[in-house]
Design goal:
Chain lengths: ~220, ~400
């Protein structure tokens, strides 16, 4: 089974009277358990591609399949359900919910559809926080955590619903070298242990080195 | 849904100053609503009580006697009022029984009424004679508590007269006075008591006496001229009058039909109050909608991140609707409580020289259930616009900002 397959993906944005073609027919396949780096210079269309593969943005053309099912043309409700059950996201800036604790942030993706934080959800959130070495910060408000700690909470949140695919957009972009290395080691460990597929958008060659393979996007096309 | 409620609560408690100000503003509008409702209803109660406290709530009188005169072709040519017979209710005992069986009827008072004069020396004063059973002296007007000289006991065969009439004729309790009825019958009768009810036409004109004394004076040995009914709730007079009309062929009039100006004034006042209440409600809805719209803009990033990990648009919308409902519920409870306290304070503290309230506020009539329901519903409705705006946010745009 192929986890994610993109075929002929195009994306254009309208600026005034002009259409700007950002993606020019991208073909890409992700297999289960892979850890893939998505690299390329700024403005190459890397983030746009990541948003389309993450079902956050609709492509202008081409088809997208997830777990051998076509997801192109699904409703927002269906896409939201797929993202919730099968996807995890880690962003450059952690984007935690500042008014919630570390545990509540991690539990949120499971608690919202379930209608609350059940004991099972709480236990899994605690386990994930322990796994990212934050068991002593469970009840800390998100805004009281350091940058590295926040990013690790974001990683734990991405894993909450046991996703098949985690998309990470510059996950170490806002961290110092030590925290970057720690986060990448953590992602690799999760990839090995859970067979979770990672697609990591990055500029950093050191990050790309942690991955199984690298996809280069240049001028809206995969090299 | 429950988790959306928890998120909404957390958002409100996270920014306590903003939430406090918003709740304070809405509570202020609720206080205005409660105060105006209590004042308008209190005024209506006061005016109605002032009016109905001194009059019969339903009156029963004989129908006008009409003589129908036909012409040669058999068609009715004229319907003149007959003056050949006295207007009276002959079977009044039966009617008393029927009326007393109706719900809300407190008292049924048969009366023998007529006009006459009180004569003392060269002074003559026109009077309205009210012959009633001495045991029912307080049934329609609370006369005993209005007595300023003598007593209200009619069983001794004396007269109970108004204070202004007594002043005009220089009368006091115990002094006999000549009573001349409109039937030309005269009798010297002592004044038993003098009352002052505060209504000039009653204090100057009405003379109470025992029905047994009134009958020979007004040449009415058996029947009664009218019957007055008192109810436990004056508002029900129209429906009681309707029931009586179905049961007996007599002229039956509720007090509202004789006081149409008061009814019109109360209805106009009620409409004015409704306008004020509507404006208070609009102010509540605008303040909640604008505050939540600002919140939805401020929390764009968070909404975007929630949407990215698959939280539905409906969940995001519920978070904002719940915020509106919580604000409405808390503010309406606080506003209702403070509004009640304000009404109570004003009704107890703002009093005239004799201790009566200066403002006729009815603190228990503040429309509390209504204002709480309307505020919660209005708050939920006003949250729909910001909720829709938040739910439609593009997650990619929101995260990038």
């Amino acid at each position: 089974m192929t986890l994610l397959q993109a075929a002929g993906i195009t994306k254009s944005f309208r600026t005034g009277e002009f259409d700007t073609l950002v993606l020019k027919g991208v073909d890409l396949i992700l297999e289960p358990g892979e850890m893939v780096a998505l690299s390329g210079p700024s403005g190459s269309g890397k983030s746009t591609l990541l948003n389309i593969l993450g079902l956050l943005m609709e492509p202008s053309g081409g088809t997208l399949s997830f777990m051998d099912e076509t997801v192109s043309g699904l409703s927002d409700k269906q896409l939201s359900a797929i993202r919730n059950k099968h996807y995890g996201f880690v962003f450059q800036f952690h984007h935690l919910l500042p008014d919630f604790t570390a545990m509540e942030n991690v539990a949120f993706p499971a608690a919202a559809p379930a209608g609350g934080i059940s004991p099972e959800i709480r236990d899994r959130a605690r386990m994930l926080l322990d796994r990212v070495d934050l068991s002593d910060r469970i009840d800390f408000a998100a805004m009281r955590l350091s940058g590295g700690q926040k990013q690790r909470v974001a990683i734990a949140r991405a894993l909450m619903n046991k996703p098949e695919l985690v998309l990470a957009d510059e996950p170490t972009g806002s961290l110092d070298r030590e925290n970057s290395a720690r986060v990448m080691a953590l992602l690799r460990e999760i990839n090995h242990a859970d067979k979770t597929t990672f697609l990591i958008s990055t500029h950093d060659p050191d990050v790309a080195k942690h991955c199984d393979r690298q996809i280069n996007v240049v001028d809206g096309q995969v090299e | 849904m429950l988790f959306a409620l928890r998120v909404a609560f957390r958002y409100l408690t996270a920014n306590r100053v903003q939430s406090g100000l918003l709740i304070g503003g809405v509570a202020l509008s609720v206080i205005v609503f409660v105060f105006m409702t209590a004042l308008i209803r209190g005024l209506a109660i006061f005016l109605t009580a002032q009016t109905t406290g001194q009059i019969a709530h339903v009156e029963i009188e004989p129908l006008p006697r009409i003589a129908q005169i036909a012409n040669a072709s058999g068609r009715f040519a004229a319907q003149p009022i007959s003056t050949f017979q006295r207007k009276q209710i002959r079977n009044w005992q039966l009617i008393v029984g029927q009326a007393e069986r109706l719900d809300h009827v407190v008292a049924v008072v048969p009366e023998v009424t007529g006009n006459g004069f009180l004569v003392r020396g060269t002074a003559v004063a026109p009077i309205a004679l009210q012959g009633i059973d001495p045991s029912q002296i307080d049934a329609i007007i609370p006369l005993t508590k209005s007595i300023i000289d003598g007593s209200s006991d009619l069983s001794t065969g004396g007269l109970v007269i108004g204070a202004e009439l007594a002043e005009d004729l220089g009368l006091r309790a115990g002094i006999p006075v000549l009573l001349r009825s409109d039937r030309g019958i005269e009798r010297l009768i002592p004044v038993t008591g003098i009352f002052r009810v505060g209504l000039s036409n009653v204090d100057r004109r009405v003379v109470y006496l025992s029905i047994a004394v009134a009958r020979p004076l007004l040449s009415l040995p058996n029947g009664v001229t009218s019957m007055s009914i008192k109810l436990d709730d004056p508002v029900l007079a129209l429906s009681v009058a309707e029931q009586l009309k179905r049961q007996m062929p007599l002229k039956i009039t509720a007090w509202q039909e004789k006081n149409r100006n008061l009814q019109t004034a109360l209805e106009s006042q009620g409409r004015t109050g409704s306008f004020i209440q509507a404006f208070a409600m609009i102010a509540i809805m605008i303040s909640i909608a604008s505050a939540l719209l600002l919140t939805s803009v401020r929390r764009r990033g968070e909404i975007g991140i929630m949407r990215s990990f698959g939280i539905s648009r409906a969940f995001v919308a519920w978070v904002f609707v719940f915020q509106g409902v919580i604000i409405g519920l808390v503010a309406s409870l606080i506003g209702s409580g403070l509004g009640y306290w304000l009404c109570l304070f004003l009704s107890e503290r703002l009093t005239g020289p004799t201790g009566e309230p200066s403002l006729p506020i009815a603190p228990s009539e503040g429309g509390y259930l209504l204002v709480i329901t309307l505020t919660v519903l209005g708050s939920a409705l006003s949250a729909i616009l910001p909720a829709r705006a938040a739910a439609r946010l593009d997650p990619v745009e929101a995260i990038q900002q």
